[in-house]
């Protein structure tokens, strides 16, 4: 589902954020991306949504080589990738329902389908009874779950999360990670950037570690890992 082949990213200012990063992830796999602040985690995620382009190497998402993607194809790629942010970026002048419906509104889905899919997504994150509320009235953990419902309402095959539990206490953080795990069990590929070493360890998933832009562990393919290296 994801393939990085010797990917480097040098920003315009001259800073090299990623150096020769190679790894692959299978469909339905869940992995964590860790590393010190500034190690390149957000940069790596941005290459998958084409918020940034690599300076060298190739990124493939769902078999599509992103370096061949024309600018007008980028919105189509992004519809297949759900993104969850630390500060969830919800709109506080709209209801929970309307926040989750946004990706479907953008593609002009029919209202009946929007209703059905928004409720299915809210049901998955346990917030079906809060659809008419304003997200400002929800707890931090609930707000983050609204952000997750919005990220998955399109049924994307790939889900990326950038520090999704950064503002949450340990128990709520564990709940959010379990939710990601459930999505991976139904075939969604999930990559979660996280600083939370303890939680990452407790989850037991594959861990990709960046240090100063280099992938220092977890870069082997799942098959290679199975054989111990
Ligand atoms: N648009 C940009 N222009 C220039 N340099 C950038 C840009 N974005 C990121 N960088 C630099 O690239 C490096 C990696 O940044 P990145 O955001 O990928 O790290 P990170 O691992 O996600 O860090 P954090 O955990 O603090 O979010 C940093 O030194 C940062 O200053």
Summarize, please:
By secondary structure, the chain is an alpha/beta fold. The chain has helices spanning 41-48, 74-78, 96-106, 111-124, 140-152, 170-185, 197-203, 222-226; strands at residues 2-10, 16-25, 30-35, 56-61, 64-65, 81-85, 158-162, 189-193, 206-211, 214-217.
What does this structure look like?
By secondary structure, the chain is of the alpha/beta class. It has one domain: P-loop containing nucleotide triphosphate hydrolases (Rossmann fold, 3-Layer(aba) Sandwich), CATH 3.40.50. 34% of the residues lie in helices and 25% in strands. The chain has eight helices and ten strands. Helix 4 packs across helix 5. The longest helix is centred in the C-terminal third of the chain and has 16 residues. It is globular. The mean pLDDT is 92. Adenosine-5'-triphosphate (ATP) binds next to helix 1. The site of adenosine-5'-triphosphate has 12 residues, from helix 1. Part of the ABC transporter FtsEX involved in cellular division. Important for assembly or stability of the septal ring. It is a peripheral membrane protein. One of its GO terms (cellular component) is plasma membrane.
